[in-house]
Amino acid sequence: MLLRSYVPAHPYWRFLLTGAGLALLWWVGYEHLLGPDGRLDHALSRHVAGAAAGALRAAGFAGATAPHDPTLVTLAGDPAVLVGDPCNGLALYALFAGFVVAYPGSLRRKAWFIPLGVAAVYLLNVARVAALALNHAYWYHTVDFNHHYTFTFVAYAAILGLWRWWAHLGTDIGRPSYEPGYVA
């Protein structure tokens, strides 16, 4: 209750301050707890690599993970993509969830949209790793560009699209409670 009196009344200021606070919380938590520990990052990197290898197999390619390194995706036994900790999507999940938490809207809407959005970003990241493996196998000279630019653009465009969808679905700003179809 005391904290509420310090939060600005205007929803846009509340969003900015909440978002900045969540970003600071994420940075401190990651830099001092999750990052140095490394277990969550490594488990997620292994999982993304395994899912990408499974997606490649489902598409008819000889995808697998290397027996000596479960974060290395192989195609027909040849190394293709190493899923490092910065590329496992953890920061993207936090970024997506932080926006939804900071944006005005009911907790009930946030409770279903955050897991749905994180799952969508996860699947996009798995598809990205599988596509990079194919890129490495068939067009190796474009891997660096696609990894750093093309797939980064696609990932952030998808997150922006999800945020836009959330903003239209989940916002209470400027919507009177008597508007047809309004559910709090």
UniProtKB/TrEMBL annotation:
Main location class: membrane
Record localization: Cell membrane
Membrane protein topology class: Multi-pass membrane protein
Lineage top rank: taxon: Bacteria
Keywords, ordered alphabetically: Cell membrane, Hydrolase, Membrane, Protease, Transmembrane, Transmembrane helix
Transmembrane segments: 12-30, 90-107, 119-141, 147-166
Protein name, UniProt field: Exosortase/archaeosortase family protein
